[in-house]
Amino acid sequence: MHEIAFVVAGFVVGAIVGLTGVGGGSLMTPILIFVFGIKPYLAVGTDLLFAAFTKMGGTIKLARARRIDWAVVANLSAGSIPAALITLYVLHTLGPADPKVQSIMTTTLGGALLLTAAATLYKAMRGKAGPKSIAPGQEAAAARPLHPALPLLFGALIGTLVTLTSVGAGAIGVTVLMLLYPLLPLPRIIAADIAYAVPLTLVAGLGHASIGSVDWHMLAALLAGSLPGIWVGSHLTPKAPERLIRSLLSFLLAYAGLKLIAL
Predict the structure, then answer these.
(1) What is the per-residue pLDDT for 246?
(2) pTM (2 decimals)?
């Protein structure tokens, strides 16, 4: 019975991701904790691999369309992957099921959801403002950050956040990229965010699997629902009131974040 419920949950989250682009981790992890009563460390570990596999297809599609700025992806990954490995080492040393670790994970997850809620609302209010395309001869300048050290710094922060909570590579990542690369058009920012999230969530997810923080049966059921859900959501995008949906999601994420902090 639970497996059917996981498939349905996967479909709903996949449809929302396909519809709005909001990161699946910010939606799936609270659902697993509050609706299904899954322990936070299992919810985070399973959701990391869920995110890696769901975003992999999108990355391949974007790469074929030549919409990914790989220099941006490399800069962020140089900070996020080492930070993820260090965080995994700490979790392995302390034990993911330790009550103190669980408390840190739920509090950090709550904070990450509040940040995601703010980033989602900001994007909803801002709409599609920003450069529509890169001017001829400005490709190199557009892929250059405000300061060379900033992608490494923010990449490390996001890598730690994602490994601890499975949240951060979606709306937070997009907002960070918009600030670091102001000349980069929004579609290319979203493409870079999806692409760098794949190696990060894969490394973090496999690391969690190595310390027993992944439920493989639950993961299979979630993916069975999410993959068709993303397809349905992406085809409904032109007809959906994206700004309204994003605004409602931001309030739901904020509510979930406050509830986790209060645990």
Answers:
(1) 74
(2) 0.84
